[in-house]
Amino acid sequence: MFGNKENPFKTKEIFIHLFGWLCLASFPLFISFTIFSEFHPMAFLRVLLPPVLFYVNYAVLAPKLLLKKRIFTYIVTSVLFLIGFEILALNIPTLIPIDQLDLPQDGFLYRMRYVVIGFALTAFFLFGGVVRLIKHIYISDKLSRQNDIRKTRTELEYLKAQLNPHFLFNSLNCIYSLVRDNSKEASNAVIILSELMRYTLYESNQDRVLLSKDIENIKNYVSLQKLRLSNSEKVQLEIKGNYEEQKIAPLIMMTFIENAFKYGTDYDGRTEVHIVIQVIGNHLFFDISNLKGTRNIDKNNSGIGLNNVKGRLNLLYPHAHSLDIDKGDREYSVKLHLTLD
């Protein structure tokens, strides 16, 4: 069912079983020794019966029938086995020449001995099935969680594979604009781009990075955009709070920043982008807004980027984030709240 068979006995489990049975067996043997001042043969023989019942169900019937959903066959086989086994168990004193315990024949225990023995043996048999069922559920749940983790990692790698080229492509466009205009800042931009590429190629492969590194990467990107823009007076980046020890999923804020610069230039060539990153304790508040510019929004490319970051947020911060996107007539704003690890 899950690609590998459950092994009913592992080294650690064997020791646990042995310890449990030794503890259980010590009680009737102690009673026998207390009453007869010696280990009575019948008491010793009876101690061997519960493990046999337990393991017949635990290692044979439950995995072969119950766990394969052959319920009717399991019930019939179990009932027939219990009847046969208990008949054999109750006749052990006559089948094997050993002394019987002397019990008053008019006593309650003597009259109810068959019921008590039958109930006890049935309980051990059922206990074996219950333990095996619990173990099966535990293993199934563990495998399911491992599969979920593998699936999540695969999805994250896919999203990163989309994100990294998208981010680098936008940065290269910025360099191209500077070179095309013969800007003196082109060499500066290449240096900044090398830092952006280093972060994207090496740091972003991790599940979490220091927030200080991610913010430094954002600062570099904003600096690169300012070199490209003819009017960047209203481009503002504000960082608040103590974030030196905090960690975050890399590039989780970058898509919003890219879109703000990409679509935030108005008819007069002005770009107005306001970015505020505030850290309070283990809470990060990211606010970004931009005026809607003259460039028509490419719904396909923009949608891929937003869907990408939404997918990453759902995978990396499933119950630890809130995202509010406001598409106003003149302004586009995003508010993101993260509870950091």
Topology:
Layout: H1 11-36, H2 41-47, H3 49-66, H4 71-90, H5 92-95, H6 108-111, H7 113-180, H8 186-202, E1 209-210, H9 211-228, E2 234-241, E3 247-248, H10 254-263, E4 272-280, E5 283-291, H11 299-316, E6 321-327, E7 331-339
Kindly list the characteristics that best describe this protein.
341 residues; 2 domains; five-stranded mixed sheet; Heat Shock Protein 90; alpha+beta
Main sheet: which strands, in order across? 2-4-5-7-6
Q: In terms of quaternary structure, what is this? A: single chain
Largest sheet: 5 strands, mixed
State the CATH class of the largest domain: Alpha Beta
Share of residues in helices: 55-70%
Domain Signal transduction histidine kinase internal region: 155-231
Keywords: Kinase, Membrane, Transferase, Transmembrane, Transmembrane helix
Pfam family, one: His_kinase
Transmembrane segments: 14-36, 42-60, 72-92, 112-134
